[in-house]
Amino acid sequence: MTPLPIVRTVADLRAQVSAWKRAGLRVGLVPTMGALHAGHLSLVTLVKREHDKCVASLFVNPKQFAAHEDLDRYPRDEAGDAALLQSAGCDLLFAPTVDVMYPTGFATAVTVSGVSAPLEGEMRPHFFGGVATVVAKLLLQCLPDAAAFGEKDYQQLLVIRKMVADLDIPVEILAGETVREPDGLAMSSRNAYLTPAQRETAGLLNVIARDAIARIEAGGAISPALSEAKAALAAAGFSPIDYVALHDATTLAEIRTPTLQQAARLLVAAHLGGTRLIDNFAVRSV
Amino acid sequence: MTPLPIVRTVADLRAQVSAWKRAGLRVGLVPTMGALHAGHLSLVTLVKREHDKCVASLFVNPKQFAAHEDLDRYPRDEAGDAALLQSAGCDLLFAPTVDVMYPTGFATAVTVSGVSAPLEGEMRPHFFGGVATVVAKLLLQCLPDAAAFGEKDYQQLLVIRKMVADLDIPVEILAGETVREPDGLAMSSRNAYLTPAQRETAGLLNVIARDAIARIEAGGAISPALSEAKAALAAAGFSPIDYVALHDATTLAEIRTPTLQQAARLLVAAHLGGTRLIDNFAVRSV
């Protein structure tokens, strides 16, 4: 089997995508930062279900890391990632350098207000500006028919949907369900940072969150359910706990009613050792 | 002759542009705020020189007016504008409402730093954010092969070029030379605000600017040439004078050498009665 073709310039990417489109083929894009796992590969499967060709991008975007974050130690293995993508049915890898994405003098930013403000927006103030800018670029470089993003980064998915709608970017946004380990831990490239003991504890995050959700879906009071989930995470060894919060599923406005009256999302961010884990879950209204 | 076709939704715009593209035709866009004059029509001519079809847009963009500016009294005459566009060879008018461009909950902004900072960026802090956002939308709604902008708004032209390059918007940006009245006054929709006496004085702005340029191009000292141009504008009745400034032609960095050593642009903004006039001119290095 020939290896997955890799292009590194926008011109080469567009030449291949244009050729496919001229041939009447539908093209989907899966943007990634590499360090691929089954969650990413499920997005390739999702794209290939209704598209003839799948392009994946691999770019560790410096604009979405703050100075104190893990840009330098973020796991990188392009050859391994390319092999995984090919096994999942991907047809082309776009792996640009930082100079291709942000040449000297780069000066443009795309920002989304509202849905980007709470939660990750408070914890990582530069994050969504960096995400919106790089995703706008990737979509416009590739001009696919669709692009797929994981629900694991739920707020990011909403920010991207808003940006694409507001700027009239002619691309359909597909959402892939979070893929989980047998113990329910959401797959994440950052799970690789965990020691075996931390990895065992990490599996409790989704269990504790689901317990809170069960109580809320049964009509229980929201505020104590969230407080007790935080206490359970702390008792399990998570520290600090950035948030355990219940927000509207679409607007991401915080829910302030005593019990649940609308479609919601429970979102969690907590640290274990030096590793920050996030997860989120649909919550049905009573 | 049938009147110029007008579309008001993005779907209708895309249907026509897609049909043209499928037929192998090249399409250019001329974004306008209406109140058209020969300057706008020259952009239609510029587009039609190398493109089969020309789309013009007419949208008075509220995001690029500050609260105290002239949004409400900005001249509007869609039927007259459509007739002028058709006479110049335009093939389609896209005239969306504010609700089409900025539906409730619109939350995305495109900003360009650097080239947008001085001059108009200092005088009208919201201006270029509003321009970059609406132009990104118009380009992505229409997806033309090229779009034309006038050099009359020189800094705006540079901001748009930077935004398009940085975000990889797949559209060629064309620049049209400023069209002038017989006395050299740059054509502008806002000239309609001038009384006959003010209109006569307005013709001095380009004369005073060209006099400063002649001295600078002859190797004269920059600073006194600009100061004397300001004094001449004030003596003619312009007040206040926002700037008479010499900047790098590409980066728009202010030029601080005693005499000119690089390709430059002289830019002027000055008020006459309640009307703000801007103009700019190429300046050759010695």
Description of the structure:
2 copies of one chain form a homodimer. The N and C termini of chain A lie far apart (53 Å). By secondary structure, chain A is of the alpha/beta class. Helix content of chain A is 39%, strand content 20%. In chain A, the strands form 2 sheets. Chain A has a 6-stranded parallel β-sheet with strand order 1-4-3-2-6-7, sandwiched between helices. In chain A, strands 8-9-10 form a 3-stranded antiparallel β-sheet. The first copy, chain A, contains 10 helices and 10 strands. Chain A folds into 2 domains: 171 residues, HUPs (Rossmann fold); 95 residues, Pantoate-beta-alanine ligase, C-terminal domain (Pantoate--beta-alanine Ligase, Chain: A,domain 2). In chain A, β2, α2 and β3 form a beta-alpha-beta unit. In chain A, α6 crosses α7 and α9 packs antiparallel against α10. The model of chain A has no long low-confidence stretch (mean pLDDT 96). Chains A and B meet through β5, α6 and α7 of A and β5, α6 and α7 of B. β5 of chain A pairs antiparallel with β5 of chain B.
Radius of gyration based on Cα positions of chain A: 19 Å
β-strand number of chain A: 10
What's the CATH first level of the largest domain in chain A? Alpha Beta
Poorly predicted runs of chain A: none
Find the CATH superfamily of the largest domain in chain A: HUPs
Shape of chain A: globular
Secondary-structure-based class of chain A equals alpha/beta
The assigned CATH architecture of the largest domain in chain A is 3-Layer(aba) Sandwich
**Helix and strand pattern of chain A:** EHEHEHEHEHHEHEHHHEEE
